Mitochondrial uncoupling protein 5 (Sphenostylis stenocarpa), 316 residues
Amino acid sequence: MGVKGFVEGGIASIIAGCSTHPLDLIKVRMQLQGETNAPKPVHNLRPALAFQTGSNIHVAAVAQPRVGPIAVGVRLVQQEGVAALFSGVSATVLRQTLYSTTRMGLYDVLKTKWTDPASGTMPLGRKIGAGLIAGGIGAAIGNPADVAMVRMQADGRLPPAQRRNYKSVVDAIMRMARQEGVTSLWRGSSLTVNRAMLVTASQLASYDQFKEMILERGVMRDGLGTHVTASFAAGFVAAVASNPVDVIKTRVMNMRVEPGQTPPYAGALDCALKTVRAEGPMALYKGFIPTISRQGPFTVVLFVTLEQVRKLLKDF
């Protein structure tokens, strides 16, 4: 039964991740808007992570307008083509295989062990604890794929000469390990673990809690309507809780470390402080609209698919 939970969660997560990948890509692009790495010189049209030795213009001197998710998506399609919406989708598949399969399976195992046999329910505190444990372990395992996914999604915003041009997630991981060292595969891992703990605890625990509340109060019967409602509510909670950590994680993972030069960020705290000082506290909620736009559909697809997969595998 334990292995079955991992398989069911993994299948549902891969389907949900691939179907909402374009929204996740737009979120990453928005989170990198306005990023400053002064005193690095940059090209005057692309302020973030576009280091040009031939230009005397610095990031701090360039004011760039911030655009919304629709504008980001339209510009992405216009400049890079429709296929660019699925840049890094191979990394998403690997990430969901490693990270989500682990967190969903572990949460299911802990939920089974910690559920009160008499009432058939688990207290909210235990749900949150199960989510924190499952999310942290899953994120530690899936971090290399997460780093590769962020880089592949962000690559198109750089000038052609500065792009990494990873061919696939395997190529990305191999080149990172060869060029930057194996430890680069776990860059930002503390942020990934923290975010995953918040997302898993808020998403899975709140889904179960909302579902129980709806059924106990007789608002709806157990079915698709209840699953969709509880999923959207859980997705909103997860987005609010995780977005600040997600912004910092994206920037730390995407930063380019040149040989012999000081990295743009010394770590997560340094990135957070520089981001708030340069762009204000609300910069930590950049990409929130596409985040909630993705978390809602992702959570719905995740749990609806999970229920269907469970029905298909119930005899195994």
User: Anything to note?
Assistant: The chain has ten helices and no strands.
